[in-house]
Write a structure and sequence with these properties.
Strand order of the largest sheet: 1-3-2
Helix content: 40-55%
Shape: globular
Radius of gyration: 13 Å
Structural class: alpha+beta
Number of strands: 3
Number of helices: 3
Oligomer: single chain
Largest sheet: 3 strands, antiparallel
Low-confidence stretches: none
Order of helices and strands: EHHEEH
Distance between the termini: 51 Å
C-alpha cells in the first residue's frame, strides 16, 4: 500500500495545498497567481504550482524592518 506524499515531497501543488504550505488564505494564493507574482501551470481547468516556484516566491519576500 502506498503512503501519501508529505507536502515537502510533492512536485506540484493545488492552490489550496500551496495556501496550506505558505500559511496564506486560498484567495491570497489566487491573487498572487493572477498578478503574476506566483507562477503556475494550467492544464484544462486545473492550476498547479511547482514546488520550485513556491520556494522562489518565499525567497523573494523581504523581511519587515520596523
Amino acid at each position: 500500500m502506498a503512503t501519501a506524499l508529505q507536502p515537502a515531497d510533492q512536485l506540484l501543488y493545488t492552490p489550496k495545498e500551496a495556501a496550506v504550505v505558505l500559511r496564506f488564505g486560498r484567495s491570497t494564493v489566487y491573487e498572487l497567481m493572477a498578478d503574476g507574482t506566483l507562477r503556475y501551470i494550467k492544464r484544462g481547468r486545473s492550476r498547479r504550482i511547482k514546488r520550485s516556484d513556491l520556494e522562489a516566491y518565499v525567497d523573494s519576500l523581504e523581511p519587515q524592518t520596523n
